Amino acid sequence: MTASRVLVLNSGSSSLKYQLLDMADGSRLAVGLVERIGEETSRLVHSPTGSGTRERRGAIADHQAALKAVASELAADGTGLDSPELAAIGHRVVHGGTRFTEPTVIDEEVLAEIRALVPLAPLHNPANITGIEEARALRPDLPQVAVFDTAFHSTIPEHAAHYAIDAATAEAYDIRRYGFHGTSHAYVSRAAAALLGKAPAEVNVIVLHLGNGASASAVRGGICVDTSMGLTPLEGLVMGTRSGDLDPAVVFHLSRVAGLGIDEVDTLLNKRSGLLGLCGDNDMREILRRAGEGDARAKLAFDVYVHRLKKYIGGYTAVLGRVDAVVFTAGVGENAAAVREAAVDGLSGLGLVLDGAANAARSSEPRLVCAEDSRVAIAVVPTDEELEIAAQAYDLVTR
Ligand code: ADP
After folding, report:
1. Domain final position from 148, 183, 215
2. At 321, which CATH number?
3. Counted domains in the chain
4. 241 CA → ligand 1 middle, Å
5. Cα(205)–Cα(381) distance, rounded to whole angstroms?
6. Ligand 1 centroid to 336 CA: how many Å?
7. What's the domain range around 352?
8. DSSP assignment letter at 12
9. Is 149 a catalytic residue?
10. Are residues 143 and 244 in the same domain?
11. Each residue of 114-151: pLDDT tens digit?
12. Which residues of the chain have pLDDT under 50?
């Protein structure tokens, strides 16, 4: 029997998301989440495929305890971490810097290098590292693979990666565009090519990953050539709680005139801006509901969100020269027909013409939502970051 299962771990500061996949057929054996780690009210929700969801409430002190709790749930299904069928553990790691452009088997040296990248991703890499350390402690003999959110964007050309700031300063502090959500952009751009019946190398696509975090990418022939997130995930599109693009002088103004400290500005722009900042809600469903009832702030938030999206669609059309498809993905992109409709409204000059009925129809399948005479395809492709992480990890350890 060849080991074909991969456990995918996505470790956040107070959460641990996981999926167990079987790469023999890409099927999912279990999906789960531990949340509020370190609090009294921790919760583990475990959903093995084909049987009922189990929930456990009560304090889970740290990531070590969280992973042990996950391991015992998996063991109860007969798919424990000691199973000979487990081929690898795949870890989502947010920042790979310029060092990591491929999935990488983790050893002490790699772990040290991921640790050295913490200053670039202080909110994310420490939690990812904790997840790796705990998983290695539980199964030291098993290959553990880091899959980096930045990796797919490592191909963007220098002119798109550089900020126009003092070159020596940029170099000294590793300041450049890295981009994030790369696993999703990789998966979705490939799946979009398949939907068009073409090889990835044959198509140019604009991917709009619109979740709570949101990013756009321009992918030419399967290779990423630009992306909207930058040094950190703060740049680019309007997000649930992040501002996306803004004049950097807003930061000076908040400091000098409003008297905010740098950490307060960080929190303001990352956690209290975006849709939440504009209208008090970060869930697009709620915003659409409120806007539908005539709420002016919700309508403005929607309009700002869509205006930014349009600018990226136009910008990346110029970057790519020829666009074969604009592809919507993630929570908002997959579900909010109104956002898709507004984002391409008036863009027939760029070759984008929506089919209203196809766009309004609900489905969880990859699908086209454009009119027959749309020169550029408009598609909805559900993302699957866990499957992509598992596939990359499995591919690496079975090579
Ligand atoms: P994350 O970035 O947390 O992975 P997701 O990709 O799951 O996010 O997207 C979450 C967001 O998707 C929610 O905040 C919500 O705004 C949006 N969303 C989910 N379902 C719908 C829906 N039916 N209509 C509009 N927006 C939705």
Report:
1. 148
2. 3.30.420.40
3. 2
4. 13
5. 12
6. 9
7. 199-385
8. -
9. yes
10. no
11. 999 999 998 889 999 999 999 999 999 999 999 999 99
12. none
